[in-house]
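Lab notebook, bench 4. We co-purified these components, and the gel suggests they stay together. Before we commit to crystallization screens, I want a quick structural picture of the whole thing.
Request: model the full complex, all chains together.
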Amino acid sequence: MSAPSPEPGIVVVGAGQAGVQLADSLRGAGWTGAVTLIGAETDLPYQRPPLSKDFMTGTAGEPLPLRGERFYGEAGVDFRAGVEVVAIDRAAKTVTCSDGSVVRYATLVLATGSRTRRLAVEGADLAGVHELRTLDDAVRLQGALAEASRVVVIGAGFIGLEFAAAARPRGIDVTVLEFAERPMARAVSPEMSEHFARAHAAAGIDLRCGEGVVRLVGDGRVRGVVGSSGAEYPADLVLVGVGVVPNDELAAAAGLAVDNGVLVGEDLATADPAIYAIGDVARYPSRHATGLSRLEAVQNATDQARFLAHALVEQPHGRRYETLPWFWSQQGGWKLQIAGLAAPDDERITRSDDRSFSVYRFRDGELVAVESANNPGEHIAARRFIAAARALDPGLVAEPGFSLKAFAAQAG
Amino acid sequence: MPQITYRQQDGSTETLDVVPGTSVMRAAISRGVPGIIGECGGQVICATCHVYVDDEFLDELPPMGDEEDEMLDTTASPRDPRRSRLGCQIKVGPQLERVCVEVPAEQESW
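Here is the predicted assembly.
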């Protein structure tokens, strides 16, 4: 005997920023059918960005949920926490879950996100070696930080540097080891890397670039990190922040094309018209990039979710996801904001004053990205300006007194 | 205990008792008050915790910083030159025992 199975609706795999936003936006767009949201973590879905910032400095208190607990009931979202989807049957249009349940779908959205990349060196599993992505990670790390006196951060990306900047004011010795020649090499221009390298040095953080990691040493508990130069950096706490990898195995096992993420088109659909991917796991052709993009960012997750919700409900033909990507990082007293996507060869023009620093990126004479440190007005202006594909003479940017905000308003 | 009252566009209101130091954004999200999103977690980088503060409380609010002023130019619902603020920047406590805000119709434009 079984209950009559409900009409299959939209099933969302992953209850992070993308999945929760999609469930919310589907209702906002007027979808009245079933919405099932399946998340592997047991906590109420929460915001990850504060975990490496306010939460780590202890100024934020409790973690911040993405939506209050009552949202799921009020919005009529069948939220299943602590459940993993283990298989997709595309012919039967069902997903099989870790609790043995089978859920039918009319539309399946993969919002499975990403997980931290593991360091494949000896000693990476010693006690005192941490990673930072989930709330559990953050709680453990916060506890460990209270006892720590010497921290080594492996990887000078956003997470590593945000954590370093949060740890240093506690009077802890902080060393950051970066394999590449400069911090945040994947995300920003060499000039912005240099600006942040100086800022962190001024805060007393020992940033060592061009220093890979050979092994971690210790006796059950970590005692130090050995770099590629042969130097040993003593540590009683190590944070590994060497990037993330997309959770695309579920899609691959179902025969969907994956290549560093689930491959989707401009409409965020896979080759199976009933299956979409959004957020960290989706690799898509962006009109703002020179190749395929897989972006690890809140804005990317939520804007893709909003786009897809409206596309699924309104079913317009040929609609493309074209929102300009933007990013941010808070590192100590410096707020880094990036509007647009730059390629390594894009021209660079820097501007600075006593409070802020910026790098404007041009491609074939067109403004494609602006990196701003402590200049939120410029960042907002840049988001609008680049999205509207407006023209800007690179020569103007280099002139003293130039302000993108004023220029945008005046050229109107 | 400090109190925050949220008034929706349909006129319905909800009043929360919160611990001192809690922001209008955090209280709304934690307790599930609809219409306030707080996408950036209080970093003053988005404008999805936009609220209209009732007139009688305007004089008691903390001053507006440049970042908040910039972000308020990007709200989905129109900015009110006097009453618009970001909920993440208004914390209740000894300086502000009670505040009433109106939740705008839209936080996100699509």
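Chain A has a mean pLDDT of 94. Worth comparing against the SEC data before the next meeting. Chain A touches chain B at residues 25, 47, 49-50, 53-54, 60-62, 64-71, 74, 298, 302, 306-307, 310, 328, 330, 335, 337, 376-377, 380 (CB under 8 Å).
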